Amino acid sequence: MMKGEPPAALLMSVSCISDYDLLCADESSGILSGESPECSSDVDSTSPPPSPLPSSEDYSIASFIEHERNFVPGFDYLSRYQSRTLDADAREESVAWILKVQAYYGFQPLTAYLAVNYMDRFMDSRDLPQTNGWPLQLLSVACLSLAAKMEEPLVPSLLDLQIEGAKYLFEPRTIRRMELLVLGVLDWRLRSVTPLCFLAFFACKIDSTGAFTGFLISRATEIIVANIQEAGFLAYRPSCIAAAAILSAAKEIPNWAVLKPEHAESWCEGLRKEKIIGCYQLMQELVVNSNRRKLPLVLPQLRVTTRTRMRIPLGRGILHHVGSNERRGNTETVAKEMTDDGVKAADVEY
User: Fold this and answer.
1) What is the residue range of 292's domain?
2) Which residues form the Cyclin C-terminal domain (predicted)?
3) Taking 60 as the threshold, does the pLDDT of residue 339 lie above it?
4) Quick check: is 207 in a domain?
5) Are strands 168-170 and 307-311 parallel, antiparallel or unpaired?
6) Under a CB-based contact definition with an 8 Å cutoff, are residues 150 and 190 in contact?
7) Considering only CA atoms, which of 186, 187, 90, 86 is closest in space to residue 136?
8) Contact residues for 224 (Cβ-Cβ < 8 A; gap 6+)
9) Cα–Cα distance between 197 and 200 in angstroms, integer?
């Protein structure tokens, strides 16, 4: 087991929802079958009250809280967007493309979230050259391909994955080389702790009857995925985002509006009221006050007149490692190295 990774037992399921089915008594198939899981038994009125959560389950939740920091970008990653060292618009466009492909092929929400997570973690460690936008698109394709291989039973070919809306068309061998670079930078840690890992547990915390658990999980998932384009959420840990999403979903249930962010702090160790409030307010601003972000408004055009096929040698010149003592913003040097390596567009399809 590599340093900083969660215990192997905690990584058996990337979605983590199946792990938390154990938290809902004996209804182990409820969440995966689409039914609302029951978190307490009401069959026999004479039955004793439910016992507290077993210590092993408490340990599982605490372990996810402890290790979630290993699967998010560094604390200064958001500041690089705020200072415009990184292009927030370019990131938003890349995420929009990932979401479009996810919708086109019917991928799971977790697949899209993981792809964005891989992309952010990679860009936190490496500088991409600013060359007509193709390096970021290549990274997006590689990250989505890796996420699909992790989560989907059927994965499109690397050419089919690049559906209309992408400006460049990369050869499969180029994408595979990029995948290897991503795997190396991420230290092969693809089974990330995400907000979706916490949803079932948090939903059971506020709905002990299980009557609305299915809705809470589904709606919170929609809220999380719909807002991954917003760079502001990079300031919050996965558990905090999950808590804010569950609260936002609960607000849509009649008579549940009394739930406040302060209530979520007691759901498990590691949650902080101030962070939950900040994340919840940002979510409300985007989801409620702005009537939620409409995906088609930010997607690239569905049809483009030109698709450029890129044949790109991925050597030392293509990507530049950023060390802890190294100055960022050296893309001009990297771009020159790429030119020296002979990077060029080979074919244009009309």
Assistant:
1) 74-350
2) 193-310
3) no
4) yes
5) parallel
6) yes
7) 90
8) 109, 113, 195, 196, 241, 242, 245
9) 7
Cβ contact 80:328 at 8 Å? yes
How far is residue 16 from each of residues 66, 234, 269, 270, measured CA to CA in Å? 15, 21, 18, 18
Number of structural domains (the chain) is 1
Name, of 2-16, 89-103, 259-273, 293-307, the range with top average pLDDT.
89-103
Q: Which CATH number belongs to the domain containing residue 184 in this structure?
A: 1.10.472.10
Question: What pTM was computed for the model?
Answer: 0.68
Report if residue 47 sits inside a domain.
no
Beta bridge partners of 348: 308
DSSP secondary structure letters along 102-168? HHHHT--HHHHHHHHHHHHHHHHHEEPP-STTHHHHHHHHHHHHHHHHHH-SS---HHHHS-TT-SE
Say if 187 falls within a structural domain: yes
Tokens of 320: 């530049």
- Count other C-beta atoms under 10 Å from residue 66's C-beta: 14
Task: Indicate the angle between helix axes 88-105 and 134-151, nearest 10 degrees.
Answer: 40
Burial of 130 (0-12, 13-18, 19+ CB in 10 A): middle
Token pair for residue 347?
Answer: 């074919």
Buried b (16+ CB within 10 A) or exposed e, 133-162: ebbbbbbbbbbbbbbbebbbeebbebeebb
Cβ neighbours of residue 201 under 8 Å, at least 6 residues apart?
A: 20, 23, 61, 267, 268
Do the domain assignments include residue 58?
no
